[in-house]
Design brief:
Chain lengths: ~110, ~110
């Protein structure tokens, strides 16, 4: 059984602060890692799909890194804005059946 | 709008009722999914359809019955549900299954 852990579970930052979250997953049989942003009352929105060890992806003020050997990914938000308030979910494709296994997410609140 | 439309947005049903959830995508994706999201739990995959064929049933009780008449439409037929089935039901689609998913906004189901 695969275990995906995201930390912290929740946090609040001030507008303009930079922040980061962690996604930990078993490194065996890794295939890809997905990051999603889920705003309240909206659809989960795909941010990144990462496959290569050492990969780094960027979308505006949000970036992510991947370490498949040790089984973790970091998501960074630079200069947080109130519109960044959302739950950030990670989900590795792993295991023999390559299913997406979802974490519980990190809930971010950005205070203006 | 993400390109994946779910109806209804909210549904209240009694335990003896029969209802259906609808999902529609015109993104040209060939895979569609039903997910269940309960409070304080990660997203749970229920069913997967690839090219209209069901390829996964994740041990879902038979009171949930999916139907995929074509590659653009997916239904979830509900009958004799239990109060613990109350949750957010999300539909998603993807191309080839290994890329990012596009989610609908979900149906908030309450069973009374």
């Amino acid at each position: 059984i695969l275990n995906v852990e995201q930390s912290p579970q929740s946090l609040h930052v001030q507008e303009g602060d930079s922040t980061n979250f962690t996604c930990s997953f078993p490194s065996s049989n890794f295939y890809a890692l997905h990051w999603y942003r889920w705003e309240t009352a909206k659809s989960p929105e795909a941010l990144f799909v990462m496959t290569l060890n050492g990969d780094e992806k960027k979308k505006g003020r949000i970036s992510a890194t991947l370490n498949t050997k040790e089984g973790y990914s970091y998501l960074y938000i630079k200069g947080s804005q109130p519109e960044d308030s959302a739950t950030y979910l990670c989900a590795p494709n792993a295991g023999n059946n390559r299913k997406l296994i979802w974490g519980l997410g990190t809930s971010l609140g950005v205070n203006p | 709008e993400t390109g994946v439309t779910q109806t209804p947005r909210h549904l209240v049903m009694g335990m003896t009722n029969k209802k259906s959830l609808k999902c529609e995508q015109h993104l040209g994706h060939n895979a569609m999914y039903w997910y269940k999201q309960s409070a304080k739990k990660p997203l749970e995959l229920m069913f997967v359809y690839n090219f209209k064929e069901q390829t996964e049933n994740n041990s879902v009780p038979s009171r949930f019955s999916p139907e995929c008449p074509n590659s653009s439409h997916l239904f979830l037929h509900l009958h004799t549900l239990q109060p613990e089935d109350s949750a957010l039901y999300l539909c998603a689609s993807s191309q080839a299954g290994d890329y990012g998913y596009t989610f609908g906004s979900g149906t908030r189901l309450t069973v009374v």
